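pasting for ref
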Amino acid sequence: MKDQKPLVGVSQCLLGDAVRYDGQSKTNTIVMEKLSKIFNLVPVCPEVEAGLGIPRPPVQLTGSIENPKLIGRDDPSIDVTSIMQNYCNTKPAELNQLSGFIFKSRSPSCGLNSTPVYIDGHCATETSHGIFAKKLCETYPNLPVIEDNELENENLLDKFIRSTMTKHLN
């Protein structure tokens, strides 16, 4: 229904839920105090929804910028790449009603343009995409998206709100 508030996906940790690898949250006051009044927020935590526990060993993107693996940061024998890829093969189709998405920056699953990728133990780039963010954006290339670290930029925030409202009305 177009008379309801737009549905906007959001990395669940930004809503204050303790779903991060370390059992913490990353509550974002702009999401909680401003955007929650404009949008109906749909929490998404790819790592938890894919079956990884809380807490869990930290993971990072490694091996290749174009096609990275999701490997344990402290224990490289941990490889959850296939678990996350399987999740990403099904979850985007469930989110077809969204009018926008707010991602957690630097996350190996949800980072939009800020996720580091490590090759041979060294950071090769800090501007890659998390595995879920990449798949969602490939599935819905016209979906308005923003990272939490961009919300404080009034121009970027206003553009995201306008784009999301436009998508919702169309």
